[in-house]
Specification:
Order of helices and strands: HEHHEE
Strand order of the largest sheet: 1-3-2
Shape: globular
């Protein structure tokens, strides 16, 4: 497992604190809790890269995919 970048660590902290989240929820939490405005497509790209790095899992059972931090 690769070491997460600063932004990836922020996203992981959101997933650890709030449980599985959709991309929109991640962007909302980042804006509210950390004062970081991140666009939807930027957050999605980070989550996709994190999936490739094996840092998160993705539930594709619904239209909006849900991401979870890997333990």
């Amino acid at each position: 497992m690769e070491k997460p970048t600063g932004t990836e660590l922020s996203i992981l902290n959101i997933l650890w604190d709030h449980g599985p989240c959709r991309v929109r929820e991640v962007t909302e939490h980042m804006a509210k809790e950390r004062g970081e405005e991140v666009g939807y497509t930027t957050a999605l790209k980070f989550l996709q890269l994190m999936l490739e790095k094996d840092l998160v899992t993705r539930d594709e059972s619904e239209r909006s995919h849900t991401y979870s931090a890997k333990h």
